[in-house]
């Protein structure tokens, strides 16, 4: 049985990591007596309160099981099937959700090529030519990932520009925040400063990639958008019966800076990893390292030998660009050990 | 903040209960090192092995987050949108999933009225008149709940009759097994004897209602039906990233008879509760108590006062029929206390 | 090649009839020069104007290819997938559209048993218990057929009662008006008196069953409901490119009482047929004959011999109830000839 | 009322044209007596026979109302929602059907940029990296338009290359043949030589753009793919009740070379138009003229004045590229008149 004899290590993804001990303790502490199922409970109230402290007192917050569910259901809440969702070619919703957004929302995704995972207003403008013509899908949502799938981060100004453009054209701005904590830390900004304050309308708030076991949140910055979301969540098969165990995790996650510490650590590990890899001949860092991902060209013949010890994914088969992700539990030993291995391998 | 000062008790649902301590320990034990996400890990292999020990070596097993997801995705795997799913009027898929089956499969549900939650072949036959005519949906799946939403249980013979009928007419038999453990115990039969051995084709295997925190399994007794299920699960937003924590729960659940002990306890509590309630004037037990649910007419004026102490749901507003559910952690004290309360209230 | 040597006759359906000569002439007259496709043309303006003369100056009208499309797209315009559509068990949308409403709207249909195809408020009330609870689909539309699939007709008062109930509970009243003309004639009422004036919100207005070649209309009595319907129609694959040929038909249909004459004739033929059949021993008329359908018990052994000469459908296999439909081109000779055949056969 | 006083002329689209007189006569001739609805009639048998003469004796053929319906339902027949459909960025299914393919099939469309509307195998290869990985949609269909939306035509060799590639990778080749007749004429090839003989699996066969009033056909070159298509057509709201009137059109269309003559004429008109426009300074033809479309850069200031007399569409707002379509009823006078107008305008 693979992977069970000793704890293994990898740079494959931040969801290959385990669960932070404080999260586990919060779960255990919530395991007392009977609690009304489906979220009508004190743990959920407490967790929602935490969200409101961080994101604004008027946000509507709904917990779901996972990240793809959070994206898909959130987008469903603000679209009709003849709408279009504009996103980067590299967006998780576009390439890593097996078409879940199209299946559940009925919408077309209109994607734009980017160098760094970040889209700009100029790239969206051409899609407006079809507005009002029934032959064409109607752009309704701009969806960005923060931090992006390329390890980069939108500045608050960049987000505001996108939000203003969206609102001017009767669109909404959606954020896939599977790694919003990493962006917040990177930007030295509060969560609110990079969301509510710059015009974000709806966000998937990630837990699992930052030390939780499972559970994500769909956050509506305008409660009127959430009016019927409870039905969408249930029909979307994401209403957890024992909701308290998601809520307890989120309460711990958002208390005592746990979310921030976890993300700060992961980001720091990524910076160190990138700095060290950059020194190695034949390895070429390809993206700015602004969050917890490092992208690099690693010549093809070295990839398999390296993957044996520390697993990671090839991002682009043609160019042999690979992706290293760090997480809350990546250690400096992991980095040192791996960098040594790379050096030895490419020598 | 309600429900947090002291552990509360209820008969509202088996999912108001918490998590069995052995399940929690299994989760903690799985929290070591990095593990490949999305199920390509040793914990998942071990859990699938357990399923095969119980249900047959050829079953295909897929873990999902919750029960509605298990039902909906499993049904999707074996239907096209022009198919129909035949079920009892009271089926969870028919009344308690906010239309999720229709939304995700596109199928119509054809429901039949039952006295006890159990459907018979004679009730299904009229739906066959439309077979082959394109104006009508084409019956493809018979879906039964075991144990049923009415606390009753299909005998192996009854299941076999439905399965044989289904197969004769090119249909499949699906089991919503959110409470399959309770049925297995009730029938003094192995899990395999009431599923694979009597012709079941596909089953949702419940965890959360029997002591797990979250996680259900979709079980295919014929692997060819599961051919593309991995895509359906991902597109259906139910591929857990940190899968190991569902798998570890299931491994514990299916080891050392935990599933059986939990269900046996819950069933026994229901029998005692029913026996004691039956002695009280004006309370009328309305269904056979074969699993962990007790249905009873409780005159309307008593309902609210009772609910204050031990919450439970009214099943039928017109007749004031209520439902009491017991769970793995219901105690004899709970029963004694509640029965005393009922006696006092109706006096 | 069957059916081509000589014109055959049947009572199978009003859509087995051909096209009224005035409709054909209108089509030919519209076949001049180039016209902007997709409905931005004078023929369509003229047809919409006719609709407004008949139904009220504020209706929004959209043409589609066929009746199932009209029902499905109209219902889509006023529902979200977590809504439910309440209808009679016998409704075309429930049994004769191969699940198209569920597939396209995502909604569950909640059907009620009726004796005569007509639903009442009391039958709908129980569905309201789930309003506001996310586990249950939310009733949003009451859909009735006028005239019904059983050849009966709702009175204006009955419609108003349903509409008032719907509006009181934030629902809408939808009419499948595939045979609205027959109902209008039967009730000696204008089209407006049995729709706009009694609270109907949205209607499928039938053409093909009353002498047109193809083409139905979706009519919104409140234009705000139609706000995005042009996208729904296009995405629903029902935007005709050469729209003028549907529009020209409707203009003719609604001019010089053609719609009324056709329906009046069909209704009269049905009454005569019913009157004559009622005189024959062993034939039992089972429904009031208020429109252009006649339902009767015809002993099983006579059905096949009769069908050879005048085709018709068996409605209920168990009871051997059959359905005879008359149309704008049914002749008194048809009736006389067929009644003679029945007499000879049952003798 | 616009457009009704005198027949207007345009180059807007081949569906701005009317109906060929022979088609109208066929419709009138079919208007005799009663015929079983929904396609179980002699006219439909005759039309299917014609299709088999042209496309091969084993094709399965189903008539639907329109072109978007033909594309969407045909694609639905060969896909599951987790599949992807690969097509050109300019494909009608990608930009002109308001997201109908996504809505009805649930699939993602993967589009590739082309210069001339034609896709190549090399452009499709990168999509194969995700095959077998559940995170990614699974390419299942390559869909090409013949002739393309850019007025170009795939050679039989090009089609065969795409079909062979598709089949090698367990994909299918779909053809949007809204203008298949124009391609056939352009290639001086029979319909079969550019479809069945070069590996096409499924095709939308266009009628309305080549002189019919309404009606398209979905053609399956392998009948096993069509096994359940009758349900898909009905559930897809495209089963015409008075089917005979589509069938009669197709029978006429495919008899006595009408389809070919109409297309040949339209193609010739396009060639003449292009030849004459090319002589005018400041007008630049941008695509090869291989079918009945002409693409040209027309400086922005001239567009509106020209559109007043002969309407046409701007294809690309940025470059002021416009599209002229010719049809079976475009006359040499139309061309001469319009070219004179252009000359006068740009002078």
Description of the structure:
- Four copies of one chain form a homotetramer.
- With 347 residues, the first copy, chain A, is an alpha/beta fold.
- Chain A is 38% helix and 16% strand.
- Chain A has 13 helices and eleven strands.
- Chain A has helices at 21-30, 42-55, 67-77, 92-95, 100-105, 121-124, 156-168, 180-186, 229-235, 244-253, 258-278, 300-309, 332-346, and strands at 60-64, 83-88, 108-112, 138-145, 172-177, 202-205, 216-220, 284-285, 293-297, 313-316, 321-325.
- In chain A, the strands form two sheets. A seven-stranded mixed beta sheet of chain A has the order 1-7-6-5-4-2-3, with helices on both faces. A four-stranded antiparallel beta sheet of chain A has the order 8-9-11-10.
- In chain A, helix 2 runs parallel beside helix 10 (244-253), helix 8 packs across helix 11 (258-278) and helix 12 (300-309) packs antiparallel against helix 13.
- The longest helix of chain A is centred in the C-terminal third of the chain and has 21 residues, at 258-278.
- The two termini of chain A are 33 Å apart.
- Mean pLDDT of chain A is 96; it is low at 1-5.
- Chains in contact: A-B, A-C, A-D, B-C, B-D, C-D.
């Amino acid at each position: 049985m693979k992977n069970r004899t000793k704890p293994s290590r990898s740079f494959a993804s931040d969801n290959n990591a385990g669960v932070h001990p404080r999260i586990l303790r919060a779960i255990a502490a919530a395991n007392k007596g009977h609690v009304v199922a489906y979220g009508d409970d004190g743990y959920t109230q407490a967790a929602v309160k935490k969200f409101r402290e961080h994101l604004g007192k008027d946000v509507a917050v709904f917990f779901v099981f996972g990240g793809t569910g959070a994206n898909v259901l959130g987008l469903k809440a603000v679209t009709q099937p003849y709408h279009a969702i504009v996103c980067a070619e590299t967006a998780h919703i576009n390439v890593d959700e097996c078409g879940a957004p199209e299946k559940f929302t009925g919408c077309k995704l209109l994607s734009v090529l980017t160098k760094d995972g970040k889209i700009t207003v100029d790239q969206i403008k051409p899609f407006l030519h079809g507005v009002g013509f029934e032959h064409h899908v109607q752009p309704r949502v701009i969806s960005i990932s923060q931090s992006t799938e390329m390890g980069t981060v939108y500045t608050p100004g960049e987000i505001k520009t996108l939000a203003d453009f969206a609102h001017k054209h009767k669109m909404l701005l959606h954020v896939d925040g599977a790694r919003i904590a990493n962006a917040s830390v990177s930007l030295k900004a509060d969560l609110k400063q990079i969301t509510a304050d710059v015009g974000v309308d709806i966000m998937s708030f990630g837990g699992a990639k930052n030390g939780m076991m499972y559970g994500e949140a769909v956050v509506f910055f305008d409660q009127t958008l959430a009016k019927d979301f409870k039905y969408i969540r249930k029909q979307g098969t994401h209403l957890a019966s024992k909701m308290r165990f998601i809520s307890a995790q989120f309460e711990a996650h958002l208390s005592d800076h746990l979310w921030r510490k976890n993300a700060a650590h992961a980001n720091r590990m990524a910076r160190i990893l990138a700095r060290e890899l950059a020194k190695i001949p034949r390895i070429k860092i390809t993206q700015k390292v602004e969050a917890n991902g490092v992208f690099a060209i690693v010549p093809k013949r070295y990839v398999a030998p390296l993957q044996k010890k520390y697993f990671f994914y090839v991002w682009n088969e043609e160019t042999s660009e690979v992706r290293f992700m760090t997480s809350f539990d990546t250690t400096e030993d992991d980095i040192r050990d791996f960098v040594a291995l790379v050096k030895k391998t490419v020598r």
